[in-house]
From TrEMBL:
Compartments, as annotated in UniProt: Cell membrane
Family matches, as Pfam families: Ion_trans_2, TrkA_N
Listed transmembrane segments: 41-61, 103-125
Domain RCK N-terminal as annotated: residue spans: 143-263
Protein name: Voltage-gated potassium channel Kch
Swiss-Prot/TrEMBL GO biological process terms: monoatomic ion transmembrane transport; potassium ion transport
Topology in the lipid bilayer: Multi-pass membrane protein
């Protein structure tokens, strides 16, 4: 069944197998914002038009210096033929003044015109090559990063928590099919991949196979299940944290391979219920969940001088002990004594 689901959402061509220059419209790396080829061409075309108009005006003002009396159309024609180095020879400068003007003014403008034409082609080719090279280097170096699937409200909050907790922006990759969401992620200095995370080639392009953790935060629960299945299939060792709206879908995500599941609707509902009775409790909970200010819940490795002690007697306010991947609350018998290798969940003061 899992293979059938995967085949349903796979495209005919694997994006991860495409050459790097074909990925410039799919992958965006921070710092890779260059002008589009069309913007370069239009800007250079405007410059070239200005040079053509300038030469046409100069020739028209010196209408008596050429082999025939020039109308303005003749001046524009002479400008186009001369600047493009076509040189039909039907209109040529004959007076000393006209020839001097061609040597001192029009010839340098002609050179500048040619530089614009050649430079536009070189700029477009160089920029595409530069972006392709940057993508190539990024794909080779990407290791032990965090992939955030979906940059909606939940995804943005997850990224904010990661950044506040010290995760570098260079170690976060966002996958989304919404260009506006990807633009918001890029503005925060995050690498982005445009596409549907239900497709394995999009996941591979984001380096899911080498990722340390994957945050699954789409808007729909069924999408979350499909994405989790795909991620677990290609990244067996990655830690998957998924979000669902409804609690009845929690077991589906667990069966699909999620290590941890957050139920967004129930969490919000509990806070709403508490807010009607004890608003201050909700305020404190929001403070603990906001990593930027006040207090926050953090995790750290136990110190050598803390081994053998009761976690209740430590300097930090300890909420639980993580041992061999298992969480024990502070009131559990297993958390009576701190052992080597334990990790402590504690309340940290954010300055």
């Amino acid at each position: 069944m899992r293979n059938r689901i995967g085949d349903r959402f796979r495209g005919d061509m694997e994006l991860s197998d495409l050459p790097d220059h074909a990925l410039t419209n799919i992958v965006n790396i921070p710092g890779s914002r260059y002008a589009s080829p069309w913007a370069l061409i239009i800007r250079r075309f405007i410059y070239a038009t200005i040079l053509l108009a300038l030469v046409a005006v100069l020739a028209y003002l010196d209408e008596g210096g050429y082999t025939e009396h020039l109308t303005f159309i003749d001046a524009v024609y002479y400008s186009a033929v001369s600047m493009s180095t076509t040189g039909y020879g039907d209109i040529t400068p004959v007076t000393q003044h006209a020839r001097l003007m061609n040597i001192i003014i029009i010839t340098p403008l002609r050179i500048a015109f040619l530089i614009l034409l050649v430079g536009t082609t070189l700029s477009v080719l160089t920029e595409e090559s530069r972006r392709a090279l940057q993508i190539q280097r990024w794909r080779k170096r990407l290791r032990n990063h965090t992939v955030v699937i979906g940059f909606g409200t939940k995804g943005r909050s997850a990224v904010a928590a990661l950044l506040a907790d010290g995760t570098p922006a260079s170690q976060i990759v966002v996958i989304d099919s919404d260009p506006i969401a990807l633009e918001l992620a890029s503005n925060q200095g995050l690498a982005t991949v445009h596409g549907s995370a239900t497709k394995s080639d999009v996941l591979k392009l984001a380096g899911v196979t080498r990722a340390k953790a994957v945050v699954v935060a789409p808007n729909l629960d069924d999408t979350a299940v499909l994405v989790t299945l795909s991620v677990r299939e290609i990244a067996p060792s990655a830690m998957i944290v998924a979000s669902v709206r409804e609690s009845e879908n929690m077991h589906l995500l667990k069966q699909s391979g999620a290590d941890s599941v957050v139920i967004s609707s129930e969490t919000a509902g509990r806070l709403l219920g508490l807010a009607t009775v004890t608003p201050s409790v909700v305020e404190m909970m929001e403070d603990l969940l906001s990593p930027d200010e006040g207090f926050s819940i953090a995790e750290r490795l136990v110190g050598e001088d803390e081994v053998g002690a009761n976690p209740r007697h430590l300097a930090d306010i300890v909420l639980g002990v993580v041992r061999s991947g298992e969480l024990y609350r502070i009131d559990a018998p297993e958390a009576e004594i701190v052992e080597p290798g334990d990790r402590l969940l504690y309340v940290r003061r954010v300055f």
